[in-house]
Amino acid sequence: MTIYLIRHAHAVEGDDDARRPLSDKGRRQIRAMAKFLRRSGRLKTREFWHSPLERAKNTAALLAGDMELDAKLSEVAGVEPYANPATMAAKLKSIRRSVAVVGHEPHLSALATLLILGRAEHPVLVLKKGAVAALERKDGRWALRWQVSPKEIA
Q1: Largest CA distance in the chain
Q2: Which of 51, 87, 124, 128 is the most exposed place for a label (fewest CB within 10 A)?
Q3: What does the DSSP 8-state code read for residue 57?
Q4: How many CB atoms lie under 10 A from the CB of residue 102?
């Protein structure tokens, strides 16, 4: 089983943090990432979980649409920037299918570190805006399989 951790792409500035959509730059980042992932066949999921923040919703929808995936998009709690990573780790422990989780820093780095090392402090992985990391669970243990950021595919 694979979990894809995806940080939202670049967003516009604004006073209402929850309602900030992707910027033109962010849409370009996700379109390029979708093209790369579609060509490489690296992202295989039929489900995207995203935070309630607009930029994460935009990222999930654009990525799934541009990859032409028949995927369900679901807003989930526990993926917000400062959410407790243990909440999402518990949700992931109970599922048996691959899922893409679209969220924010510092939450995603803490979640990846918790899954891989069993602790959330001192991240071993930091996701840039628009980046994707694949973690695989085998025999109850998580391992980082690959990570790619928009700058690496430009």
Answers
A1: 45
A2: 124
A3: H
A4: 30
DSSP β-bridge partners for residue 103: 7
Best CA proximity match to 59, nearest among 37, 27, 88: 27
**Per-residue pLDDT reduced to its tens digit, 56-91:** 999 999 999 999 999 999 999 999 999 999 999 999
pTM value?
0.96
Whether omega before 123 lies within 30 degrees of 0, making that bond cis, reads no
Burial class (CB within 10 angstroms; exposed 0-12, middle 13-18, buried 19+) of 47:
middle
Query: What's the CA angle centered on 94, arms 96 and 3, to 5 degrees?
Result: 55
pLDDT tier, 26 (very low <50, low <70, confident <90, very high otherwise): very high
Q: Is 11 exposed, middle or buried (0-12, 13-18, 19+ CB in 10 A)?
A: buried
